[in-house]
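Chapter review: from sequence to fold.
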Amino acid sequence: MIQVMKSIRLIFPLALGLVTVLYLSSCEKNKYNAHDHGDEHGHHEDGHDDHHKDGHHHVSLHKAEGASMTALGKHFAHMEMRLDGKSGKLTLWITDGEAEKSIRLKHKEISMHLTIKGKNKAVKLSAVANKLTGETLGDTSQFETQIDELKGVKEFDGIIPRIVIKGKEFNSTRFKYPLEEEE
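The token string follows.
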């Protein structure tokens, strides 16, 4: 009996460790290609995802800066956005499917059609160069604009008519700000 108890004490931590490693690696299907959770999680053709019900979630790289995040194309990438309501400055970042690394885009600007307090507004977010990361105009993950109509606003709707991420084109991507974060 004592020998059985010793065996259990040795095997249990090993089994628990194996289960933990398998669980934590479940999001690592392939860091460089899109992974698919399947349509049962509420993914839509427009690139917008519903909240996950399976406990699978990601944390925004820019959450400390007040950004919210949503997935694009079955977790092909993530869109993170932050609005400074005092200045009307809107910042957009694009990150990978795991929301761990920035994805540089070839765009020099990104067009959006916003609905702010019931009024439509066409805007362009300009590429932001960053000496620290080596990002340049036309090779960056960050885009910004300043819009007076966004001063004091906490929410708005928008559409990105076209955005190309790692060669994949997304058209008519709809969103609500703050972005619908994953749970």
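Two observations follow directly from the output. The chain has one domain: 33-177. Residues 33-177 form one domain.
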